[in-house]
């Protein structure tokens, strides 16, 4: 049986409050998830835990055999196009038989544009 996990990855921070925001994002995703992903996890690329490797290990320990890694970044850059894919590949190498994919970052999307306009309207 295919058990899919989704890992949301942000940059990570030395500030705990910043890192805790990703926990909130993961919780919102869990609420909106239509059960396509049996496991939703979060991690940080650097500066904080859980790391990408730790998140992979945790998902696999919960039975995941396919992991989707989403860089929670606005635009493509070195972290989302090189660092996170490399770290995901290294983490996956410890788990033969587990497949994974790294998605594009948030990028340009109508929903993001709507959020920007909504936030701007609140300030006017």
Describe this structure in words.
By secondary structure, this protein is of the alpha/beta class. It has one domain: Rossmann fold (3-Layer(aba) Sandwich), CATH 3.40.50. It contains four helices and four strands. Strands 2-1-3-4 form a four-stranded parallel beta sheet, with helices on both faces. The radius of gyration is 15 Å and the shape is globular. The N and C termini lie far apart (about 50 Å). The mean pLDDT is about 95.
Topology:
Elements: E1 4-10, H1 16-32, E2 39-44, H2 52-61, E3 66-71, H3 78-93, E4 99-102, H4 110-122
Parallel strand pairs: 1-2, 1-3, 3-4
Report the radius of gyration as a whole number of Å: 15 Å
CATH fold-level label: Rossmann fold
Q: Ranges with pLDDT <50 over ≥5 residues?
A: none
Query: Helices and strands: which structural class?
Result: alpha/beta
| Largest sheet descriptor | 4 strands, parallel
Task: Give a quick precis of the structure.
By secondary structure, this protein is an alpha/beta fold.
Descriptive labels:
4-stranded parallel β-sheet; 4 strands; single chain; 124 residues; Rossmann fold; globular; alpha/beta; 4 helices
């Amino acid at each position: 049986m295919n058990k899919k996990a989704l890992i949301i990855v942000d940059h990570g921070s030395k500030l705990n409050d910043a890192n805790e925001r990703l926990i909130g994002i993961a919780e919102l995703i869990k609420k909106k998830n239509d059960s396509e992903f049996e496991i939703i996890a979060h991690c940080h690329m650097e500066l904080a835990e859980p790391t990408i490797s730790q998140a992979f290990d945790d998902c696999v320990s919960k039975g995941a055999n396919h992991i989707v890694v989403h860089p929670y970044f606005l635009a493509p850059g070195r972290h989302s196009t090189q660092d996170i894919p490399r770290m995901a590949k290294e983490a996956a190498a410890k788990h033969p038989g587990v497949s994974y994919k790294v998605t594009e970052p948030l990028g340009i999307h109508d929903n993001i544009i709507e959020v920007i306009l909504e936030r701007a309207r609140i300030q006017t």
